[in-house]
Specification:
This protein has 289 residues and is mainly α. The chain is built from eight helices and two strands; from the N terminus they run H-H-H-H-H-E-E-H-H-H.
Length: 289
């Protein structure tokens, strides 16, 4: 029995030895593969600098000014989507290469900071373009200039305070304070002024006319004031509706009828102040670098 036992032990020893050798080989191979991944990662991150520089240059072309304040008039969402995709494709973090942070090259942190800054830059462009698109939606026609506010806009018939307020909130969340933001705010103020005028007219008509009949509030002075205010309404649909009510009031007061052309659209650029609309905007600042 001694010999079979020794033979069995010998076989076991050989098996264990083989396992140890295989394990050591596996470990050596794994270590070699890891070193290859580290070398590849550091080389790829280094090469990514050129891609980041190209992306930074392209972002600059999204603007019309070197200060990168005002966007190009013809800028489209597709351009931003394309550039964001290129930026996301540049991998600069250790986990993206399945290696440890400590094994990254010493200059990697600077490259990571560059990518982070570019991510913020693209986000800012996306936010500005989105706000411009939302602002255009307030009016019957797109605004004529973002660089120099022009009070020639006409609000849509179904515009609400909420729509304007949502854009003001978007501006706050962007946490910037530049001329672009001031100009957007001007356009929001233009919209607020027109909407406030419309609501004031609706209130006046409601006080002067009940069930098709004038009330004691329908005086000559209130009629003249209403007529003047209606003449300054820019939305033609609203103006036509108001003129119908004004005609009813005028006829019952004995002044005859009026047409919407009598008080045609006003060229006045007067607006309500923020104090009039009850809105007090706070300024927020943050560097998008």
């Amino acid at each position: 029995m001694g010999r079979p036992l020794l033979k069995g032990l010998a076989v076991t020893a050989v098996g264990i030895g083989a396992i140890v050798i295989c394990y050591m080989g596996y470990q050596a191979n794994a270590s070699h593969q890891y070193e290859q991944r580290v070398q590849y990662a550091n080389k790829a991150i280094e090469n990514g600098q050129e891609k980041l520089a190209a992306i930074d240059k392209t972002i600059g072309l999204f603007y019309v000014d070197d200060q990168q304040v005002f966007l190009r008039e013809d800028l489209e969402d597709g351009e931003l989507t394309s550039e964001r995709g290129k930026l996301e494709a540049v991998k600069v973090d250790a986990e993206e290469y399945n290696i440890q942070t400590k094994d990254l090259a010493s200059d990697t942190k600077k490259i990571q900071e560059t990518k982070a800054a570019l991510t913020k830059k693209i986000a800012l462009v996306e936010d500005k373009l989105a706000v411009q698109n939302k602002t255009n939606e307030l009016f019957e026609k797109s605004v004529s200039s973002w660089q120099e506010p022009v009070n020639d806009v006409v609000i849509k018939e179904d515009l609400t305070d909420e729509a304007i307020g949502n854009i003001r909130e978007d501006l706050k969340l962007m946490m910037i304070d530049d001329q672009w933001k001031k100009n957007i705010t001007d356009y929001l103020d233009f919209a607020d002024a027109q909407l406030t005028r419309i609501k004031d007219i609706e209130k006046s008509i409601g006080e002067m006319l009940k069930d098709g009949q004038i009330t004691e509030n329908a005086t000559y002075e209130s009629y003249l004031s209403l007529a003047d205010s209606i003449s300054q309404v820019r939305n033609e649909s609203k103006k036509a509706d108001f003129t119908k009510s004004l005609n009813t009031i005028s006829e019952q007061l004995g002044y005859g009828g009026v047409s919407s052309d009598d008080g045609g659209a006003s060229d006045s650029s007067d607006t309500y102040s923020e104090e009039d609309t009850g809105y007090d905007e706070e300024a927020y600042t943050e560097d998008y670098e």
